[in-house]
Design goal:
By secondary structure, the chain is α/β, with parallel strands linked by helices. It has helices at 27-35, 62-65, 76-79, 105-115, 130-144, 159-168, 185-191, 206-214, 227-236, 246-249, and strands at residues 12-15, 40-47, 53-55, 118-123, 153-156, 174-178, 196-200, 218-222, 240-243. Helix 1 (27-35) packs parallel to helix 4 and helix 5 (130-144) packs parallel to helix 6 (159-168). The protein binds SN-glycerol-3-phosphate (G3P) and magnesium ion (MG). The site of magnesium ion has 3 residues, from strand 2.
Length: 258
């Protein structure tokens, strides 16, 4: 039994682009992921104060933009002035990434189209904004997603986001994210009509892998940056490795120096 009418996850997906090779959730990071051989990327989306969907992971801009303000309080005009690349350690890629912006989801989709990359969009709402984050991001994605690319996979830790996704974008496949698989995972994933389950590398067990696969779901594990560990998960039957280092997990596809 499979859940997604043949919807298949890639074996490797670049996490936040290629988060240990280029600044996470940036357009440069998407480009780097493609250069390193990734065919799909996972990115996080949340809303600015004026409801523009942007690529960002934390609830605050402090860590990656040297701007200690909560995302939900900053306007899109102010976000566009932020530098999302200067913080990235130069030794991780032998170049400076200063000048990378915090992209809008719209800019990111244009880049994915140019690069031919598949997308796992993680709905990552700031506290209290689950419903509008899903509504705004998916309304945009429905309008602008390039038909030549595979249908994007919509995932979230936040159930309310996936409820909205099921209602307004039922044709976009859904993935349920958990750090720890809950006892009621089967009913939760089935109610949301998910095609995939995404679990944390620190908690996923071989027995859980067997159960999730037997129930017909695609299974992704995050975030795996070690090749031996990735191979062990693949041997268990995990379908997709989400990694900050696609060049390590996709041996043989990486030729250019970083
Ligand atoms: O979607 C997989 C992974 O990105 C979930 O964790 O915190 O890196 O967004 P996080
Ligand atoms: Mg994420």
């Amino acid at each position: 039994m499979t859940r997604g009418n043949g919807y298949v996850l890639p074996k490797v997906m670049g996490h936040r682009g290629a988060a240990k090779r280029a600044p996470e959730n940036t357009l440069g990071g998407l480009r780097r992921a493609a250069e390193l051989g990734a065919t799909w990327v996972e990115i996080d989306v949340m809303l600015t104060a004026d409801n523009v969907p942007i690529l960002h992971h934390d609830y605050n801009f402090g860590r990656t933009c040297a701007h200690p303000a909560d995302v939900a309080t900053v306007s899109s005009t102010a976000v566009a002035q932020l530098d999302a690349g200067a913080w990235f350690p130069a030794e991780a890629s032998s170049r400076s990434w200063a000048g990378e912006v915090v992209p809008t989801l719209e800019q990111a989709v244009a880049a994915l189209r140019e690069l031919g990359l598949g997308l796992n969009l993680e709905l990552k709402p700031t506290p209290g904004r689950a419903v509008e984050t899903a509504e705004v991001a998916l309304d945009l994605l429905i309008r602008i997603w390039p038909p030549e690319l595979p249908r994007p996979l919509i995932s979230s830790f936040t159930r309310a986001c996936l409820d909205v996704a099921l209602n307004i974008a039922p044709r976009m496949p859904r993935g349920r994210l958990w750090e720890i698989l809950p006892d009621d995972w089967q009913s939760d994933a089935a109610t949301l009509e998910c095609v995939s389950v995404h679990l944390w590398r620190e908690t996923l067990t071989h027995a859980q892998t067997r159960a999730i696969k037997a129930a017909g779901y695609e299974l992704a594990v995050f975030t795996v940056n070690d090749l031996e560990e990735a191979e062990r998960f693949l041997e268990w039957g995990v379908d997709c490795i989400i990694t900050d280092l696609p060049d390590i997990i996709l041996p043989g596809t990486y030729s250019a120096a970083a």
